[in-house]
Amino acid sequence: MFWLPILTAAEAAERKRWWVAGWPHSLANRTLLTLLVGLVVVQAAGLTIHALDRIELQRFAELRDVGIRSMSIYRSAVATSVGERAAALKEMDLGPGVAAGIADAPPVAPELTSPPYVGQIRVNMQLVPVRGPNRPRTVEIRGAPWSDMIVVAMQFPDQGWLILHIPLPRPRPWHSPTFLLAFVLMTVAAAILSFWAVRRLTGPVGLLAEAAERLGRDVNAPPLPERGPDEVIRAAVAFNTMAARIRRFVQDRTFLLTAIGHDLRTPITRLKLRAEFIDDDEQRQKFMADLDELDAMVSATLVFGRDTADTEPAVAFDLVALLRTVLDDCADARPDSADALSFTGPAHLTVTGRILALKRSFANLVGNAVKYGDAARMTLSVSEGMATVVIEDNGPGLPPDELERIFEPFYRVEDSRNRETGGTGLGLPIARNILRAHGGDVVLGNRAGGGARAVVTIPT
Amino acid sequence: MPHILIVDDDREIRELLARFLERNRFRVTAVRDGREARRHWPLGHYQLVVLDLMLPGESGLDVARWLRTQSDIPIVMLTAMGEETDRIIGLELGADDYVPKPFNPRELLARIRAVLRRTSERAEKLVEPAAKAVRFSGWTLEPSRRRLLNPDGVEVALTGGEYDLLVALVERANRVLTRDMLLDLLRGRQAGPFDRAIDVAISRLRRKLEDDGRHAQLIKTVRGGGYVLAADIDRS
Question: ipTM score of the complex?
Answer without folding.
Answer: 0.71
